[in-house]
Every structure is written in structure tokens, then in C-alpha cells.
Amino acid sequence: MTNQHKPRPVYIAAMRREVGSLVHGWRISETLAARNIHLYWNDHAVVACAGLGGDRARLAVQAALTLGPASELVSVGWAGACIHRLHVGDVVWPDIVVDAQTGERFFPLKHRTPTEGLEILVTVAAPAGVAEKERLGVSYYASAVDMEAAAVARLALAQGIPFQAIKAISDNASFEMPDMADFSTPDGQFREAAFGLHVALRPQLWSPVATMARGSKLAAQRLQSEIKSHIEQHRKTKP
After folding, report:
1. Tens digit of pLDDT for each residue in 42-59?
2. In terms of CATH architecture, what is 8-237?
């Protein structure tokens, strides 16, 4: 690891599938992979993903910062829509991030002037179904929900690093996520093979899981395009 780089934007995701094509060809830390912490970098940016939830996001941030100073910490990844205005594939740059467990509010670095009011992202501890997304929309005026942004924001604030969030909608407000709680490991990983076998034996899950897969793929594509643009913007504006 080296600290000789100029400050670069650091992007923190949960799942490698959220950023897979983006980091193709980047350097990678093999030593951290055994701990399910995946760290990628080039001369212009750092990407780290360590699994679902705030605890894993904190590990990803810690790993990323060993590569040198961050110009900003950016929480990126999939999010669920809490309002019907947002659709699968839409990209959200939240103006406010709320931690549902503590009530804390974090204010990302301004990216653009809101055109349809404030975009509020609420971070929760578990995947949100339709009823929970509706509750968050009513209680917090939430636009979207995720599981990591507040943890990244808290670390950024503690270390005096600017914070941003970029989220791509992977499921609409009316989409009921299949129950996947039994397929998450204690270290925030998703057991895809076990879930695939579970679904294969239950035809009633085939359609919703196919819808979820299409939404996740589109959201990942849109997210990566947005991150690429953000990296390029940073390259042009920073000496």
C-alpha cells in the first residue's frame, strides 16, 4: 500500500456486482479478499466493497484509506424506491442521508440544484419490503432506502472528508422483495448459490426474482455510468 497519491475520490459499495464492469482492469488487493473486502484502484479513484450493512461499509472505508488520502467519500450502490416518482434505473444524488436507527442526518456535498424537491435517502439495517418503504416515505419523506450510506457519512464527518452518495434504484416502491434474510452471512455476504437453489425449487419465486435481477442489472449499469462521469469530472477540476 502507498500513501504517495494525491487525494482521489473513494467509492464505497456493498456488492461487487454493483461496480463490476467499472473496475475491470483496475489494480486489486488480493490480501484482503480472504476477509471478503475487495479493494480496487487506479491513479484516479479507489473503489472498495465489503458486503451489506454499516459494519461492512466501515471496513471498506478503512481499507480504502490505506491507499492514500480521499478527496471525498462516496457511498454508491443499489437502493429501493420509497416513492412512485422513482423508477428502476433512476440515479439519485441525495441531499440528505438519514440513519433510521439513530435519527442522525447527514448532508452530502452539493452536486446539483434539486429540480423536484429534496432527495432524502434513509439508511436501514435490513432490506425493506413494500410496507417498510411506504413507512419510510411517510415518516422521513424518503425518496429511497439503502443499508450503508449513513455509516459512510458518519466516517466522512469524523475524518473531515467531504461526503457524497450516488444510488441507483434497483426496485420500485411497489415491488415486494423476496425474503432473502436466510441467505446473508454474518460478514455481510450474500449466498447466491444457496439462494438460487432455493428459488429453483419454488416456481412462485421465479417471476419476482427475474424482475429483481433485471432491475439490479439496469441499476448497476446506470450507477457505473454515473460514477465514471464523476471520476472524469474530478480529473478535470482537480490539479
Report:
1. 999 999 999 999 999 999
2. 3-Layer(aba) Sandwich (3.40)
